[in-house]
Amino acid sequence: MGGVGKTALLEEIRRKVKEAEMFDLVIDVVVSQNPNIAQIQRDVADALGMSESSNKMLVTRLKQEKKVLIMLDDVWAQLELVKEVGIPYQEHNGCKVILTSRSAELCNLMETDVSVEVATLSEEDSWQLFRMRAGQVLESDDIEVVARKVAQECCGLPLAIVVVGRALRSYKDSRYWEEALSQLKQSVPSNIGNVEEKLYKSLELSYQNLKSSELKQLFLYCCLFHKDYDISEEEVTRYAVGENLLSNISTLEEARGRVHFLLETLKLSCLLLDSKKPRCVRLHGVVRDVAVYIGSKYDNHFLVKAGLHLRYWRERENFAAWDRISLMNNDLQEIPENPNCSKLVLLLLNMNPITSLPTNFFENMVTLNVLDLSDTYITCLPLSSACLKKLGTLRLDRCKWLNDINVVGELKTLIILSLRECIQISALPENIVALVKLKLLDLSYCTSLPIPRNLIPKLTRLEELYFRGCNVTEALFIETLDTIHSRLLPSDTFKKLKQLKIMGCPCLKHVFLPSIANEFQSLEKLEMKNNGSIETIITDKEVCDLKKGAFPMLQQLLLIKLPRLGCFFIGEPAKTLDWPSLEYIHLSDCSNLARLPIGRESAQKLKKLHVASLNDVIWFKTLKWKDNTTKSRFDIM
């Protein structure tokens, strides 16, 4: 049964086992409804620190562990653990396996030694859990009477109890509770596979009680991803911005903040779960099933068939009815010509072995706002891409065979363009400068791509440019920087830039001319990381002087792994700046740096200076300061 607490119980077992040090290694694997043997093997191999994950190699490596526990969550179909996966639980007494499943029959098929049924909660335990989630509102006698009936309707299912309790905790009128009870007693649709009747009612009630349309829409967005996916806040943000889903938002950073707030609110509503990965969330399998149904049932018109190993796009299906389609993470290779998708605003085809798209594929998708073709094998975009007159987000990440994107320059409504790890692209189209609405351009690890000379200044609304691992040495060499500044980077180029990260540029020695640094009027975060050649931040090879009030909005300064960084300013090593907005400094592996550009009266808002390691602490104590008063201001945390 779904929602009874199997995964939560497994997590508690893992915690207890680790606490008691019963095993040398505990490995967690989520199997899910459509098991991918190769992915299961990769998960086990990753936990063992292995780069290869073949059956034989896993068997050999696991036998080397004296005591190892492998926890398989959400198993739906019989797995041959030894023959298919490479888990030698029968051959190695030190290798133990715990699995969870909704099927007792499957446990028998897998010949488990002990099977334990996870029962629903008793009426009293259900009420106690409900009280914890609903809170002080139950102190009203009128509400408590109805609330007990509401708790009973959850039928002892912890997921239902938690979700409903959270949904109703702010309502102090007993009439509202009566209405909620009535909704829970209504009949449910019969075509929602794998979802208990009472659980569906509880989850739909929680969805209907979300306070805003943005919350509801973002919750449904989370069902677009395949089951057990770690949903990245950044992915959700890039989709939401492309679809103009967020109201009263003007910058990408504001959009990220709104998405983070909405996802945190959904977690508080118990509709989303924490992920082990940073800035990610997860969706319980049952909650996702209900979200997929709700998305298809109401006016949102979601079609979600992600992660189902589909091999064909079913041409006979009526795609004209759908607003959003997710076919991500399947086995699609061939795509039909000119599908009728006249209402479509979002299309996710990422993580499919698609080699090409028909020339007329996009002709009937004139309303499309979001398109994701990442992790496909396409070599070019079809000519019909020019029909996408409303496209806001285009993701082509890791399309490693893609070499022709000339049509992109015609997509004049683009706000987000991501070409991350498109290693075959050697040139951006000349008309890319026509993308006057572009706010984010991600060219990270496009190793064959030079940055065009006229690109940055003509993208007048650009807020974020990512070029880690790119061929940007010409644009950043101090030897040519004055030429580039006069010919490529006119004044005010960086006036609206809010975040700048410079990583992995091995030839970069001197970062900014004073004239460029003076332009950073809106810069809030500056991060330099893994740049082994940087010697100075600001050079003096220019008549223009750095203003004492430079970087007026900078809040965060991160200098990480800059072993040759000797000073901030050539010629003026003791120079300090005002830093009126600076709140946080992070320093790591900058052992050649002799002083910080901070004086007695500067950086009055500084809250934290973080030094990463013991060696860094020792180095920090050797820094030179103008006076002891300045040095005493900082606490190393």
UniProtKB/TrEMBL annotation:
Residues 1-135 form the NB-ARC domain. This is NB-ARC domain-containing protein. One of its GO terms (biological process) is defense response. Residues 486-610 form the Disease resistance protein At4g27190-like leucine-rich repeats domain. Signal peptide: none annotated. Belongs to the disease resistance NB-LRR family. SUPFAM superfamilies: L domain-like, P-loop containing nucleoside triphosphate hydrolases. The keyword DNA-binding does not apply. The keyword Transmembrane helix does not apply. It comes from Zingiber officinale. One of its GO terms (molecular function) is ADP binding. Keywords: ATP-binding, Nucleotide-binding, Plant defense, Repeat. Pfam families: LRR_8, LRR_RPS2, NB-ARC.
